[in-house]
Design a protein that fits this description.
Two copies of one chain form a homodimer. With about 140 residues, chain A is mainly alpha-helical. In chain A, about 55% of the residues lie in helices and about 5% in strands. Chain A has helices at about 5-15, 15-25, 45-60, 60-70, 80-110, 120-130; strands spanning about 5, 35, 40. Chain A has a three-stranded antiparallel beta sheet. In chain A, strand 2 and strand 3 (about 40) form a beta hairpin. The radius of gyration of chain A is 22 Å and the shape is elongated. The mean pLDDT of chain A is about 85. At the A-B interface, helix 3, helix 5 and helix 6 of A face helix 3, helix 5 and helix 6 of B. Chain B binds a DNA duplex (30 and 30 nucleotides) through helix 2.
Chain lengths: ~140, ~140
DNA sequence: CTGCCACTTGAAGTCGACTTGAGGTCAAGA
DNA sequence: TCTTGACCTCAAGTCGACTTCAAGTGGCAG
């Protein structure tokens, strides 16, 4: 468990050094010392970063996460919060599935214009109703 | 097909007037005239807004959409683009499904810490590998 | 001992999609 | 005619998660 310098952490985790500094400032990770100016991290920070990546991918914000597993590395994450996130994801998945099916239908649909296709119109209605209003960022 | 004033469009579509002005500025919708200062819209703008909502929910950016169905209201949307988006959604859905299953597992898992559970660790690894790195915004 | 240069800091900039605010205008009701 | 108040314009602000920049520092090779 020898300390890793920030560049090494960046290399191992794929997280840019600027982001590591940012995360430290936010209290999401902690350095264990310095060599000169240079931050040193415990090797376990790599797991921690993986956990953060997981959280981000699940839709947690950085603020949520700093509240959720504050301080202790061996975070005991509240199972209810996890379950709630899983449910939220479930909803999102349903929406996106509807979207995807609708889009695929539109691809093959022979109506003169998408706007005249009943299936597409159902999609539109759903979208307009805000049911499908999940604003997503692009995947990596 | 009598013109609707901006407030009426906002009421019918659920889209705030400020957003309608913003969309017009971006060329995503067009007003057909004014009554005094007040914009007037063709009633079909409501369908257009539904289409825009659909696009947003599918992951199109506003810029993409203004390029995609520029000008013509009766937009003939390129089927290849639609298919590509559907595929993209498919990928996202797979990722989120993996996330959800992992989270659910973590909820019930009896390992002393999530970090010691093999299933959770697989998730972490996947997340760290960036496979699950889809950055999403919260649903409405 | 000297330079190099990757690291340091704090502040500012970026991106997308809007929202908010200040100050102005005009159709309609009293 | 006057007032009201919702709309108008244009500029600036917001939010989250970072990235970039300018200026400074210090470990280490030569």
């Amino acid at each position: 468990m020898q300390p890793l310098d920030i560049t090494e952490v960046a290399r191992r985790s794929g997280v840019p050094a600027s982001t590591l500094r940012f995360y430290e400032e936010k209290g999401l990770i902690a350095s264990i010392g310095r060599r000169g100016l240079r931050r040193l991290f415990d090797a376990r920070v790599v797991d921690r970063l993986a956990l953060l990546a997981l959280g981000r991918a699940s839709g947690f914000s950085l603020d949520e996460m700093s509240r959720l597993f504050a301080g202790n590395g061996r975070s005991r994450i509240d199972r209810r919060v996890l379950a709630a996130k899983a449910d939220e994801l479930d909803g999102t998945i349903k929406e996106l599935t509807a979207m995807r099916d609708g889009l695929r239908h539109a691809v093959g649909c022979r109506a003169p214009s998408h706007l005249e296709c009943p299936t597409f119109q159902r999609l539109l209605k759903a979208a307009a109703a805000g049911k499908l209003g999940a604003r997503r960022k692009k995947a990596l």
